[in-house]
């Protein structure tokens, strides 16, 4: 049987014991979802296609006319 409890790991090169009770979190891990401000911005961005399409329609109308 092992001389260390199962929640510890021994690094054979360094001889150090690491505690594995909590998972290590990467400091650059993104948030799990968009913030409320991001949600509002993307909802408004969907409406931004309307003036773009109107502009394309005006340019096409002027080109054909």
Report what the structure shows:
There is one protein chain. The chain has 65 residues and is mainly alpha-helical. It is 43% helix and 9% strand. Strands 1-2 form a two-stranded antiparallel ribbon. A hairpin with a 6-residue loop joins β1 and β2.
Q: Count up the helices.
A: 2
How much helicity do the residues have? 40-55%
Mean of all residue-level pLDDT scores:
78
Number of domains: 1
- Provide the succession of SSEs: EEHH
Give me the secondary-structure category: mainly alpha
- The oligomerization state is single chain
Structural topology:
Elements: E1 8-10, E2 17-19, H1 36-47, H2 49-64
Antiparallel strand pairs: 1-2
Features:
single chain; two-stranded antiparallel ribbon; 2 helices; 65 residues; mainly alpha; rod-shaped
Quick recap of the structure?
The chain has 65 residues and is mainly alpha-helical.
């Amino acid at each position: 049987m092992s001389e260390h409890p199962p929640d510890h790991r021994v690094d054979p090169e360094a001889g150090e014991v690491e505690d594995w009770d909590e998972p290590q979190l990467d400091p650059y891990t993104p948030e799990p979802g968009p913030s409320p401000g991001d949600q509002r911005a993307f909802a408004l961005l969907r409406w931004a296609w309307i003036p773009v399409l109107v502009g394309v329609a005006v340019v096409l109308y002027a080109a054909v006319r």
